[in-house]
Amino acid sequence: MEVAEVISITKPSSSRPFEDVDDDNDSDVEMNNTTNQSIVTPGELITDDPIWMKGHGTYFINDKTYSSVAGTVSRVNRLLSVIPIRGRYQPETGDHIVGRITEVGNKRWKVDIGAKQDAVLMLGSVNLPGGILRRKSETDELQMRNFLKEGDLLNAEVQTIFNNGIASLHTRSLKYGKLRNGIFLKVPSSLIIKSKNHAFDLTGNISCVLGVNGYIWLYKTNVNNPTSNNNNNNSNNSNNPSITRLEEESSWEIYSDKNDTTITNSIRSNITRYYNIIKALSYCELGITEQRISMGYEASLAYVNLGSLNDKDAMETICQDIINNEKMRGIN
Amino acid sequence: MILSPAERAYLYESLVQKPAIRPGARSDHQFRPLEAKTGFLPNSNGSARIRLNDGSECIISVKSKVVVTRGESSLIEVDIDVPGFRDDSNFVSNLKFSLTNLLITKFPVEYLRLTSKYSFKLFIDCIVISHSSYPLSLISLTSYLALKTTRLPLLTSEVNDEEIEEQPTFSDDWDNAKYIHPTFQPPIFITLGVIGENLLFDPSIEEEQVLENGLILSFYKDKVITPIINMNLATNSNNSNFKGLNQKLIIQSINLCNKYCPAIIKALDTLIEQDDENDDTDNHIF
Question: How far is it, in rounded angstroms, from Cα A275 to Cα A310?
Fold first, then answer.
């Protein structure tokens, strides 16, 4: 019996072999002084020129601007801010996110989205069973736990950010709502690259919700209702659901906790394959996009034993494959 | 940690399959990969650190003190510190008791004897910097590394001091220090999750939430020994799947451990050898 089959114990390595390939992309941000872009640490003096306006990630003492986070300095016109390298997710209006209910309160749910504060989801911002035209009533307030309860996972969109930084969410679309038929995983939110679509179908009958907040849901593709918006065949019916369809689907079913009964073992192992690919991307600190996940899938097909994808070497090989693949296709 | 009902159901269904489909696609008997380093604390006799990919981390330091054998109830003292838990909480005292008990009953104390009057006493201090799943196995693997690399100063005075009033004296050359014993192998704990007919080695925190039972086996000198403990591994959450344990599974778990644990010991020993070889060349521990 091979030791490697049971456990792999390695020495810590001092450096990761990958540089963030997206580094060069920062240059398309408009800056007065691009040459001066540098990494600063908390408390480091950025400038003693009082002409700069202080933005996020900075503080100001005696006309001097200091960095309050570790990150890169960004100067847009007169605004000086520091973009943190790591940190909690900062919600922005329009972000497609995945969250977990932490609290059921008065006409609202609290949702953990990995930000500094829990987001709120108002009872008025969800689709209630019975269709879009229905008003919320007192009975709805009383049975909020029947819709969503503590621990439930949902995907939603950030509707607004309140003055105090709390995000308000909504699920008023059929692509949002409770999540079923799959598994959840977390990666640092800084690794998620914002794109048009954060919900897509992947090869192998798997779909993915790549929350901008770094929360990811991998699940079996719903045959009746494909998630993919960029898929030409069904772009009309998933982008603009007719009111009748909304009414059909806004039954209690959208809040059901029951999984499909027909999740086959091949689907389950495909889900674990994607799970490991995303873990590998996150281990190598590569930005995560739909394309990279797909390329990772192809690269991972070389591994018959999926368990070996947990190893450092395998993860690095997969990421190297993805980078080579991107170079060949001329991306970046 | 709370899972949603749909997540729980999916995870449970996946894990009861034959063979189990675990979230990270590990096989039943596969551990999560570890990163380990030994002998990095200059002020300790032995030290070790293990880190997992998910950020779980444990650091152990072993220090020794010369004591009068007769005055001590035990020659090993373990202390465990887990952030977020009080030192007198059930969680920490259970961990502490399990480890202390295992070491005291299985540690060959004669290796610590210096003279007829004096002995070394070992203080094993564990800090669990971060953990997701039940940390006992992590702590015990780290303690294996730490104890295995513990070096004690060489005694230069007489071994037989029954007749003479003399305190032991030691060689002041640290290079002469010796390991506890060349063949010494500290005992370790292995966590197993029970779900359906399956036994899963080293369950992750998500898996712990849906397990039907948890087993902790101790392993020493190439075979499973007592204590064998069963417990609910999901701390701080009510595991609704938790139920009684099938006796057959206990026998099965012992057989599995006897089969796979030698590989773990071997991997740990290999790491120690590698650390010994390039002791001076690489000093980074992170």
Answer: 10
Question: Among residues 252-281 of chain B, which lie with CB inside 8 Å of chain A?
Answer: 259-260, 263-264, 266-268, 270-271, 274-275
Tell me whether residue B161 is in a domain: no
pLDDT (0 to 100) of residue A140: 87
Q: How many domains are there within chain B?
A: 1
Q: Report the gap between the CA of A57 and the closest CA in chain B (Å).
A: 26
B29 in reach of chain A (CB within 8 A): yes
Phi, psi of A246 (to 5 degrees): -60, -40
Count each helix (H run) and each strand (E run) in chain A, helices first.
8, 18
Measured over the CA atoms of residue B87, residue B90, residue B94 and residue B97, the dihedral's sign is: positive
Q: Is residue B77 part of a domain?
A: yes
Supply the DSSP string of A261-298, one letter for each residue.
S---HHHHHHHHHHHHHHHHHHHTT--B-HHHHHHHHH
What distance in Å separates residue B2's CA from the closest CA in chain A?
Answer: 5
- A208 exposure class (CB count in 10 Å sphere: 0-12, 13-18, 19+): buried
Band of pLDDT at residue B153, cut at 50, 70 and 90: very high
Kindly identify which residue of chain B lies nearest to residue A305, measuring between CA atoms: B25
B200 C-beta neighbours (distance < 10 Å), count: 23
Are A6 and B33 within 8 A, CB to CB? no
How many interchain CB pairs under 8 A, A with B?
Answer: 139
Which residues numbered 164-223 in B keep a CB inside 8 Å of some CB on A?
201, 206
CATH classification at residue B217: 3.30.230.70
Model confidence over B83-94: pLDDT tens digits?
999 999 999 999
Q: Hey, is the C-beta of B4 within 8 angstroms of any chain A C-beta?
A: yes
Calpha distance B219→B187 (Å, rounded): 6
Query: Is residue B251 less than 8 Å (CB to CB) from chain A?
Result: no
The interface pTM score, or ipTM, of the predicted complex is: 0.90
Nearest CB partner across the interface for B37, out of A12, A268, A310? A12
User: Do B25 and A6 count as a contact with CB atoms less than 8 A apart?
Assistant: no
Closest CA relative to residue B151, chosen from B181, B171, B115: B181
The amino acid present at B225, given as its one-letter code, is I
Shortest CA distance from A8: residue in chain B: B33
Strands B34-38 and A9-10: parallel
Closest residue in B to A152 (Cα–Cα):
B4
Domain that holds residue B48: 12-155+171-285
B6: nearest CB among A179, A306, A312: A179
- Tell me the H-state helices in chain B: 5-16, 90-106, 136-148, 205-210, 247-277
A83-100: per-residue pLDDT in tens?
Answer: 888 889 999 999 999 999
Distance CA B102, CA A263 (A): 44
CA distance B189 to A176: 44
User: Is position B214 within any domain?
Assistant: yes
Residue B166 forms part of a structural domain: no
Q: Which two tokens stand for residue A319?
A: 């990421």
Q: How many CB atoms lie within 10 A of CB A106?
A: 7
- Chain B residues whose beta carbon lies within 8 Å of the beta carbon of residue A6: 29-31, 201, 260, 263-264, 267
- The β-bridge relationship of strands B188-195 and B198-201 is antiparallel
- Provide the whole-model pTM: 0.87
pLDDT digits (tens, 9 = 90+) for A194-253: 999 999 999 999 999 999 999 999 999 987 655 544 444 444 444 455 555 555 555 777
